[in-house]
Amino acid sequence: MIYSSDMAQADHTAEMEKELADRIMVLDGAMGTTIRTYGLDESAARGERFASNDKDLLNNGDILSITQPQVIADIHKCFYEAGSDICETNTFSATGIAQSEFFVEDPREKGGRKDPEFFQKILENDFLNELAWEMNVKSSQLARKMADDIGTDTGIKRYVAGAIGPLTVSLSNSPDAEDASFRVVTFDQVLEAYRMQVRGLIEGGCDILMIETIFDSLNAKAAAVAVQDIFDEQGIHLPVIISAAVGLGGETMISAQKVEALWNAFAHTKPLAIGLNCSLGPDLMRPFLEELSEVAGTYVSAYPNAGLPNPLAPTGFDLEPPHMKDFMRGFAESCLINFAGGCCGNTPEHVRAIAEGVRGVAPRRIGK
């Protein structure tokens, strides 16, 4: 069953809050890591439709929702069966701005530069606009069908979170060492790209919107404005989760906000949850998660990488499922989290272990 945009108007916040009062909800794991286990090559990523594209597409995981939908659907199925209550859509880079990296010639290769004029053309590119729309709608539909199928089979409701990634450009920092005021893109351009993505995710039937892996808080601000704009435009409301990637000092990587400042910057948006993901393994993430849990006036999520990168490890990261189980259970027993999952390096087997680790542990209480 595919939800229409009208059906998506149901406010899932109260429904989820009832669940969160009783237990820690489980997110999914790493889409990119799990895609690699299917052994796809460049030809498979391109499919017939993009066979003649000038640039390689194998690292464009979002394109697989179009060229290899059965793979993406199977990944969602595996995560739901492993114990995920919520799976994210395969849309981390599903904006015209991000997709231009794979389909438009880079002006820097001929001595030019990327600037607002370049990205205005990207926003007006019919091919990229249609591609971004299709990616978001189809990705939501793929996750929606698996959520409904597994939910029906198990009698446990499963949710779809529309993944809104950080983009490949920064609004906070200049790439020009000689001109600190220069930005490659404007706030309004980023806002428009996110608006299109949000519309597509809602059209495809997601229950939640997840602004995730924030390395630039101003980019995330644009995403949050886009979400509210589309809510107002369509007269709907969905729960929103905001999740940042942090460095070793506990700061968002480009905008350098510490976690308390991050909460203060987004508290007015009244997210269902705020949290941390990616970037660090659970051991290195813990002190920053403790700080966030202390200050946040809402639910808290955590889905760290499976340790630090290790090219010799099977998943490219150090930690195996039992390790993630122990770390995430430690977060739970310390009353730090309401949502638990995994980012880079976390396969369905990792998520199964995480789900086992947090099962039966009381969730964090807001304000405590």
Give the SSE layout.
Elements: H1 13-20, E1 25-26, H2 31-36, H3 42-46, H4 64-67, H5 69-82, E2 86-88, H6 96-103, H7 116-123, H8 126-154, E3 159-164, H9 187-204, E4 208-214, H10 217-234, E5 240-244, H11 259-266, E6 273-278, H12 282-295, E7 299-304, H13 321-333, E8 339-340, H14 348-358
Parallel strand pairs: 1-8, 2-3, 3-4, 4-5, 5-6, 6-7, 7-8
Q: Could you provide a short overview of the structure?
A:
The protein is of the alpha/beta class.
Shape descriptor reads globular
The name of the CATH superfamily reads Homocysteine-binding-like domain
- The number of distinct structural domains comes to 1
Name the helicity range: 40-55%
Architecture (CATH level 2) name: Alpha-Beta Barrel
Distance between the termini: 40 Å
Structural class: alpha/beta
Q: Count all strands and give the number.
A: 8
CATH topology: TIM Barrel
Q: In terms of quaternary structure, what is this? A: single chain
